[in-house]
Amino acid sequence: MCHGDGGAGDGEVAGRFARDSVVIASLNNSDRMDKLTPEEVRKVIAEGGGHTQRSDLMPPWSSRLTPMQIDDITEFVMQLRYMNPSVPSATLAAFMAAPEGASAEGRALFVHHCVACHGSEGKGDGPFAPKLLEASKVQVRNLTDSVYFKDRKDSDLYATISLGGGHFKKAVQMPAWTQTLKPADMKNLVAYVRAISKTESK
Fold first, then answer.
1. From CA 138, how far away is CA 165, in angstroms rounded?
2. Residue 122 backbone zone (phi > 0: left; psi -120 to 50: alpha; other: beta)
3. Whole-model pTM?
4. pLDDT digit string (tens) for 148-182?
5. In whole angstroms, what is the distance from residue 186 CA to residue 202 CA?
6. The domain 89-197 is classified under which CATH number: 3.40.50.150, 2.70.50.60, 2.60.40.1930, 1.10.760.10?
7. Angle between helices 89-97 and 154-163 (to 10 degrees)
8. Is residue 143 helix, strand or coil?
């Protein structure tokens, strides 16, 4: 209600505080969050703003949440700076709720849904690829490109599969699969992309 579901400081009560010249902290601001350690963030959550040289309006949560819950919130807050602001919170929630992906299951889905464009080995050389390049100047992504994928987060890969290329102002020919595949299926595809690109999950 204060920080907003994406941590941008735009929760439902932020406007009310703004009228009193109170600015809610943006937890997805890299410049701000890079200066804080997980221990410092956890201390603010547990003890509140008044005990950590911050606003008294930030309440202490140690009496309402378990230590494990505070740890979970701390971990989530520390990741907010890396989250793509153009990814809807509902997409992120679906990603986080789905079980860990399995590359073997992702391979089966890949063969059925993705080979036509990305090719049987994911190198961007499927049977539709030449036509896309000729007609639309679209180069199908080589999913084995470890240089490209090593810096991409799992949640971003999931969002691209779920929402399609057009949502991110990329190739509209990359379809949105959210109406066709379940969140668990899309995480399996992410796991498969990790396997063929030889990159670590992040």
1. 11
2. left
3. 0.65
4. 999 899 999 999 999 999 988 889 999 999 999 99
5. 16
6. 1.10.760.10
7. 120
8. coil
